Amino acid sequence: MDTMRDEKRKAIPAIGFYPQEEISTGTTLIAMEYNGGVVVGTDSRTSAGSFITSRATNKITPITENMVVCRSGSAADTQAIADIAKYHIDVYTMTENKPVTIYRSSQIFRQFLYNYREQLSASVLVAGWDSELGGQVYAIPIGGFVSRQRSTASGSGSTFVQGFLDSQWRPDLTLDECKAIVKQAVGLATFRDGSSGGVVRLAVIDKTGSKFELFRPDKPGFPFVQTPTPHLSFPPHIEQVL
Question: Active site at which residues (predicted)?
């Protein structure tokens, strides 16, 4: 196996070999259980390094009426995994004549993310509701490890809001309280994370199905972040106007 570091490789035009530098990507995914279901929220920015390829990406992909998957990593990889897993879940549902549980669905995602962990750059949050366990959130980072979470964040923006989520979650959250927390968490992450931005998308999944909402920065309801005013940057003897 060729283990030479990419930065030491040189282009060989004669055979069509042009080494590519790794492209950094980023996103913000939030998911939280409440008393009756799950609320998920995402930003909408797709980036390739410093270039923003899309400002209105939908990172919440419906899998069934009562389950969605939130995608982060390579857009192509996560879209392919979502399509393949959805196909298998639909086949199991038809052949067994009953809905596939959320936990079993997370294991289907895990199987592909683990088997192709060397080829894929994909991390997902599987969120949904079923009659056995109610609302559930399963986090599957790169590599294919599955863990059920009551409140979780994924993507580059998650590092800015994990403490906020830990301080806000409690067992008896109502739907409105949970939506407010998730929306504010996405707003906080997009404010600090340069790879997250755009609109805020929310999805509520419960026994009645999935409901989707969108909040634009130029419309009421978008999360607002109040920052401390900075100290004056010039010497005191220079008159400044804030």
Answer: 27 (nucleophile)
